[in-house]
């Protein structure tokens, strides 16, 4: 046992912190704290006179809480833990201390330290002494963070994340240590440590949600404001705001709780019931699924079961449906984990791992044995648990708009504080009572900081989310909609995203004696025993479920091209040792005599040449059944013939596809043969490495480049005959590395993914909007590059540079090389490669063989049409224009080419070839090498990278992270679970899948194509501009009202309650609600909206509008003072006067200023439609403007009396009490009408000036000109812009063909 002493933790005493989950997305910095009694006492004493404000700050700020109440301490003494993630978010967690007995895992127990035979004390300093009870031996310490348990390890003096048995466990150990299950005692101990196998999402009560909402600073401020208004007898508005507050609170609480309920239903859907496990002492035992622990051996049922944990298959095969996790509908076959000494890795051994939430469709086992799987992860440590955690604790949105908004509110708070101080001075000077002074000062605070601002700012985002829903785009993160408005780069997956998920068969290219033959369109025309045909029919992972053949679409299309049949016989039908394998065989058919004799593709002699062909004749029973072979030349072809091909191939062993090996293999046995065969299918580059060199055709690389560069997906196949001594038992235990070598290359499989019809228009739209596009995929580099050319990601004039890295060897450092990637025009023509191809016309029908390649063909008839002419000439400026699957473009000048590719003429300068117009392409292996040996070049490659091929899921996530660190606002669009990490990491992740793994993505599109990308960007830009407009409008509303009050208070005047009510509720609130209904523009422009409220344009806009509003009101008072009939207010007593000319003038001017600002801040172009297209806005505008005009120009008696305005004739409600009316109640309107028209002219002038200011300050080019003239040109803020500038200047970089040596190896040496 490990005794903790102070001496053992000198390092921890000095550092007092630790890093958890290093180099992962969950990296946390951890610090320890203990309660400080003297800090706590001071805090309590200060809180009472501060009206408990420090308590609320403690609730809002976790860092302040720890600094105010706790003291730093070493981790081994800590009672509280401060966790800081990579984004700077802080969390405080309590360290739980529990007493345990010796059944608990020894590595986590801290034993009690015996001072004498009677006294036992704990070894660390906790808040309370720990004394042993009964058989308790020691105690354990841990804390929970985001549903994950972190245990204290006394031997290392650190907290460590509690994981399953999948970490640092070798594959062979699963068999050695756990094959017979775990014992009862071990189970109890593991259950104590890992807890129950539950993804426990508790549903909080309505009261709990309500309290969490109410302690929000904005809600508290609204409650505070309502209280001030009620005390000030501003009852109407206070009640209205209180009703709105309650409705908002109830709605928010209800929606949050419903989301909580739905998440709980998703989490607990697969943990009910019981399961059979293998117990070391008791054999097969049935236990509840909630009591599963890592190490349990599951006895998998035959099918129809959803697994409640992550498990690794140890025995038998398992066919599962991972659709809910990956979005791929095709079943997956899970095979036993290889018996090797390598460490288990979830990414490497996916084909052997069954994930929680996966539906088991069928299990297969040998003889009387069951299918077994070992539990490796439970609860929130499973893949599904990680998904639920990602939803419960999403990545924070670090958007500049939100940060700057809070800073601006702080500035407004300082303005409000200064105004409150001025009010205290002003009302104290006139002898007002203390209560009145306090109320007036607090009222200023509620005016300058409008309580409704958060709701008004978020309204546009909510409307955008509703519009997205109507366009089949669902969002779980409304805050990301605004971020979509700033997207400047979009990353696309390829297969299923840019291209169709289905695949088309184009043919096979057999290899004969080290040479390629011509392409064969129909593989079923190959000879029956041709290894290539058998490979196509057997090298796959297909299976039959409920009578339907299911599996990977590529495997399915490949198998269907053979015309063979797939069977899975029952146990009683087994003829291959003790194991009943799946069987593939040619079909049985019954042709008519005329078809047999006259068929162009099958003649009488063709049938006779087939081996193992038996002719059965019911018309000539005397002949019986005779075999047509060379030794028996008789050929019986009567009119009624049943041709039975007695040829079967049993699939004995399957080696599933490995992403690291990039291939899949099968071991088969043909009925009647004494040996087995190995067939392998996979990446041509990988297959080439395991084949004998003399069997690989000389033009292998040329042909491979020729097809992949033209967008075709190419797979290679190989064959090997195993020794006759290899038995079934040997095959079941053999490792693939032992047999996948010295194989014979047998041919290439040519397939093709077509682009989705929406891909090219969307990519063109994004590029025209100056939004960068790139591809990140797991497919072949040249195939991906061809697709990028086809869809327009690569501009016609761009040079494509391929990056490659040679790893260090023999003491020499790694070398990085830049070379120009091949374009289709620079590749060898396929007919040239076919000159020396083996002619199969004597062996196969002529119609099945392609004599030449036509890039424009799209069907079988055009596939074999010879090319009539060579590629058209083209200029240097367009030398890289793609020609695949498009008619020949017209030769001539650049304009004709642009018309052909539908490129706008305004982009001419953009597409003119320059020495700096280039992009990089690289694969996943190169990416890893660059990050390791050339880290200084990563930023440059990412800035100009265009195609990232052969990328693993974690590499996709790394790329997204690198782009974000360069300052890009990244959107990611993908359709599978391999994109899940990148979708969650991106600012705007858009999933095209309904799988559960994609639920954590901010956006999910029900339309399975990339047309959702422009929709999200347009709605994001509209929502962002609307949020800016609403924020500025609410800020200007508060400042205008602040100006009004500050102008009236020194004149002993103020607004009436109904004036405030009309301004606050009817004018401002209505406009704040309806402004967000304006829809986005139909076109995405090159310009992007501003992302910061403190940007120069917004600052100029707000400052100018405040200044104009102040001057307008000041000018109105000045015009009033010039009137001959004007008498200033002479109030008696401390109470201000309401009905007077000062109040009337300021009120009329201010309400029109609110209306003018609402129109100005609803300015549409270029991101929104014009505000007059917003019907609700126009109805509100016309209604309020009309009524306000009446109040200003023609305030008839009842209306004037209601609002306490000066009447049309200049009188007040009670003429005798009017302080500034010298009228006698007669209808002498003349001088007052002229004055009112002058005031209205100020309104019109303000409207024009407000629009002019907004037009100027929102014009990007004018703001830049202003900055450069008066402030100076600011340097780029984003790193990618700085890097772009550097690369523009460096005309001699990259050094084409000149290797760059790494310095990392030298540093390591």
UniProtKB/TrEMBL annotation:
The keyword Calcium does not apply. It is found in: Membrane. One of its GO terms (biological process) is intracellular calcium ion homeostasis. The keyword Transmembrane applies. Keywords: ATP-binding, Magnesium, Membrane, Metal-binding, Nucleotide-binding, Phosphoprotein, Translocase, Transmembrane, Transmembrane helix. It holds the Pfam family Cation_ATPase. Residues 274-391 form the P-type ATPase A domain. GO terms for molecular function: ATP binding; ATP hydrolysis activity; ATPase-coupled monoatomic cation transmembrane transporter activity; metal ion binding; P-type transmembrane transporter activity; polyamine transmembrane transporter activity. Its EC number is 7.2.2.-. It is a multi-pass membrane protein. Belongs to the cation transport ATPase (P-type) (TC 3.A.3) family. Type V subfamily. InterPro entries: ATPase_P-typ_cyto_dom_N (IPR023299), ATPase_P-typ_P_site (IPR018303), ATPase_P-typ_TM_dom_sf (IPR023298), ATPase_P-typ_transduc_dom_A_sf (IPR008250), ATPase_P-type_domA (IPR059000), HAD-like_sf (IPR036412), HAD_sf (IPR023214), P-type_TPase_V (IPR006544). The chain crosses the membrane at residues 41-61, 206-230, 236-254, 408-432, 444-465, 1031-1049, 1061-1078, 1099-1121, 1141-1164, 1176-1196, 1234-1257. GO terms for cellular component: membrane. The lineage of its organism: Eukaryota, Metazoa, Ecdysozoa, Arthropoda, Crustacea. It comes from the Eukaryota. It is an enzyme of class 7 (translocase). This is Cation-transporting ATPase. Residues 26-153 form the P5B-type ATPase N-terminal domain. It catalyses: ATP + H2O = ADP + phosphate + H(+). It comes from Artemia franciscana.
């Amino acid at each position: 046992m490990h005794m903790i002493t102070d001496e053992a933790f000198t390092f921890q005493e000095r550092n007092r912190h630790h890093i958890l989950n290093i180099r992962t997305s969950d990296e946390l910095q951890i610090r320890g704290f203990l309660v400080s009694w003297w800090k706590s006492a001071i805090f309590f004493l200060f809180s009472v006179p501060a009206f408990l404000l420090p308590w609320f700050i403690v609730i809002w700020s976790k860092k302040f809480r720890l600094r105010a109440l706790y003291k730093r301490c070493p981790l081994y003494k800590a009672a509280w833990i401060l966790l800081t993630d990579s984004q700077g978010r802080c969390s405080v967690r309590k360290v739980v201390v529990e007493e345990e007995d010796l059944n608990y895992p020894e590595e986590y127990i801290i034993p009690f330290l015996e001072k004498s035979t009677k006294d036992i004390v704990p070894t660390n300093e906790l808040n309370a002494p720990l004394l042993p009870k009964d058989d308790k031996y020691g105690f354990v310490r841990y804390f929970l963070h985001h549903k994950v348990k972190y245990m204290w390890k006394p031997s290392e003096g650190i907290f460590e994340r509690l994981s399953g048995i999948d970490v640092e466990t070798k594959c062979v150990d699963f068999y050695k240590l756990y094959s017979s299950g775990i014992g009862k005692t071990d189970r109890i101990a593991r259950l104590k440590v890992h807890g129950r196998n539950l993804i426990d999402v508790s549903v909080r009560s309505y009261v709990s949600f309500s309290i969490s909402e109410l302690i929000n600073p904005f809600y508290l401020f609204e409650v505070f404001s309502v209280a001030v208004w009620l005390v000030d007898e501003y009852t109407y508005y206070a009640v209205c705001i209180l009703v709105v507050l309650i409705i908002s609170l109830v709605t928010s609480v209800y929606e949050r709780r419903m989301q909580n309920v739905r998440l709980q239903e998703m989490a607990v859907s697969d943990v009910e019931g019981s399961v059979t496990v293998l117990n070391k002492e008791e054999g097969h035992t049935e236990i509840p699924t909630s009591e599963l622990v890592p190490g349990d051996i599951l006895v998998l049922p035959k099918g129809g079961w959803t697994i409640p944990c992550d498990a690794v298959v140890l025995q038998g095969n398992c066919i599962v449906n991972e659709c809910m996790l990956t979005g791929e509908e095709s079943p997956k076959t899970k095979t036993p984990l290889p018996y090797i000494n390598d460490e288990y890795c979830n990414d490497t051994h996916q084909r052997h791992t069954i994930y929680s939430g996966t539906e088991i469709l069928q299990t297969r086992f040998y003889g009387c044995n069951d299918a077994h799987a070992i539990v490796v992860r439970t609860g929130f440590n499973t893949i599904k648990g990680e998904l639920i955690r990602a939803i419960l604790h999403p990545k924070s949105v670090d958007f500049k708009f939100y940060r700057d908004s809070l800073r601006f509110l702080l500035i407004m708070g300082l303005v409000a504080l200064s105004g409150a101080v001025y009010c205290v001075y002003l009302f104290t000077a006139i002898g007002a009572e203390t209560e009145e002074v306090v109320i007036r000062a607090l009222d200023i605070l509620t005016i300058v900081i409008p309580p409704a601002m958060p709701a008004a700012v978020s309204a546009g985002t909510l409307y955008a989310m509703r519009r997205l829903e109507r366009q089949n785009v669902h969002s779980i993160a409304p805050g990301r909609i605004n971020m979509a408005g700033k997207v400047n780069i979009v990353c696309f997956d390829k297969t299923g995203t840019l291209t169709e998920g289905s695949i088309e068969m184009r043919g096979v290219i057999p290899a004969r004696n080290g040479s390629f033959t011509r392409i064969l369109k129909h593989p079923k025309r190959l000879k029956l025993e041709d290894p290539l045909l058998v490979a196509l029919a057997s090298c796959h992972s297909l299976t039959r479920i409920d009578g339907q053949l299911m599996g990977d679409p590529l495997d399915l299309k490949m198998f269907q091209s053979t015309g063979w049949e797939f069977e899975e016989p029952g146990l009683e039908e087994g003829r291959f040792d003790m194991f009943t394998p799946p069987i593939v065989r040619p079909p049985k058919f019954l042709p008519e005599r005329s078809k047999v004799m006259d068929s162009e593709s099958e003649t009488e002699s063709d049938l006779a040449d087939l081996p193992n062909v038996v002719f059965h004749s019911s018309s000539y029973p005397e002949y019986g059944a005779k075999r047509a072979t060379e030794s028996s030349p008789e050929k019986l072809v009567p009119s009624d013939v049943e041709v039975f091909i007695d040829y079967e191939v049993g699939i004995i062993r399957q080696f599933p596809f490995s992403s690291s090996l990039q291939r899949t293999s099968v071991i088969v046995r043909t009925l009647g043969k004494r040996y087995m065969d190995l067939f392998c299918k996979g990446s041509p580059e990988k297959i080439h490495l395991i084949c004998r060199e003399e069997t690989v055709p000389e033009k292998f690389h040329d042909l491979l480049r020729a097809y992949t560069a033209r967008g075709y997906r190419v797979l290679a196949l190989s064959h090997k005959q195993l020794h006759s001594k290899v038995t079934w038992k040997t095959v079941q235990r053999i490792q693939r590395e032992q047999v996948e070598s010295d194989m014979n290359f047998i041919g290439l499989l040519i397939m093709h993914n077509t682009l989705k019809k929406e891909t090219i228009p969307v990519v063109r739209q994004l590029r025209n909007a100056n939004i960068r596009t790139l591809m990140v995929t797991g497919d072949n580099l040249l195939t991906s590059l061809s697709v990028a050319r086809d869809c327009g990601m690569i501009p016609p004039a761009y040079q494509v540079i391929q990056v490659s890295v040679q790893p260090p060897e023999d003491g020499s450092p790694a070398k990085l090389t830049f070379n120009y990637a091949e374009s289709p025009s620079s590749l060898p023509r396929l007919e040239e490669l076919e000159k020396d191809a083996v002619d199969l016309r004597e062996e196969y029908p002529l119609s099945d063989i392609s004599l030449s390649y036509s890039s424009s063909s799209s069907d079988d008839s055009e596939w074999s049409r010879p090319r009539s002419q060579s590629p058209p000439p083209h200029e240097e400026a367009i030398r890289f224009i793609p020609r695949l699957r498009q008619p020949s473009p017209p030769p001539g000048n650049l304009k004709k080419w642009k018309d052909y590719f539908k490129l706008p003429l305004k982009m001419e300068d953009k597409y003119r070839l320059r020495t700096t117009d280039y992009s990089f392409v690289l694969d996943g292996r190169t990416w890893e090498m660059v990050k390791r040996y050339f880290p200084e070049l990563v930023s440059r490659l990412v800035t100009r990278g265009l195609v990232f091929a052969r990328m693993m899921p974690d590499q996709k996530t790394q790329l997204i992270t690198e782009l974000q660190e360069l300052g890009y606002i990244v959107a990611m669009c993908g359709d599978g679970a391999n994109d899940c990490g990148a979708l969650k990491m991106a600012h705007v992740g858009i999933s095209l899948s309904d799988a559960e793994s994609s639920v954590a993505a901010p956006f999910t599109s029900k339309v399975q194509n990339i047309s959702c990308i422009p929709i999200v960007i347009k709605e994001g830009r509209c929502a962002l501009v609307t949020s800016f407009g609403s924020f500025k409008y609410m800020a200007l509303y508060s400042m205008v009202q602040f100006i009004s009050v500050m102008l009236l208070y020194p004149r002993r005047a103020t607004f009436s309650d109904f004036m405030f009510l009309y301004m606050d509720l009817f004018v401002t609130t209505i406009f704040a609600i309806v402004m967000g209904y304006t829809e986005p523009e139909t076109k995405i422009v090159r310009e992007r909206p501003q992302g910061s409220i403190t940007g120069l344009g917004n600052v100029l806009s707000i400052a100018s509008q405040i200044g104009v509003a102040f001057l307008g009101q000041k000018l109105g008072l000045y015009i009033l003072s010039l009137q001959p009939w004007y008498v200033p207010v002479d109030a008696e007593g401390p109470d201000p006067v309401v009905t007077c000319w000062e109040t009337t003038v300021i009120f009329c001017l201010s309400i029109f200023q609110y209306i003018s600002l609402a129109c100005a801040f609803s300015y549409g172009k270029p991101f929104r439609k014009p505000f007059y297209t917003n019907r609700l806005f126009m109805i509100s505008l016309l209604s309020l403007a009309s009524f306000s005009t009446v109040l200003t120009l023609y305030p008839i008696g009842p209306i004037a009396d209601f609002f306490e305005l000066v009447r049309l004739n200049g009188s007040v409600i009670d003429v005798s009490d009017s302080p500034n009316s010298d009228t006698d109640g007669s209808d002498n309107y003349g001088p007052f009408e002229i004055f009112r028209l002058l005031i209205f002219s100020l309104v019109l002038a303000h409207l024009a000036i407000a629009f002019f200011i907004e037009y100027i300050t929102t014009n990007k080019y004018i703001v830049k000109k202003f900055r450069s003239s008066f402030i100076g040109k600011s340097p780029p803020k984003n790193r990618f812009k700085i890097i772009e500038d550097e690369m523009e200047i460096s005309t001699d970089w990259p050094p084409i063909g000149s290797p760059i040596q790494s310095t990392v190896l030298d540093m390591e040496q």
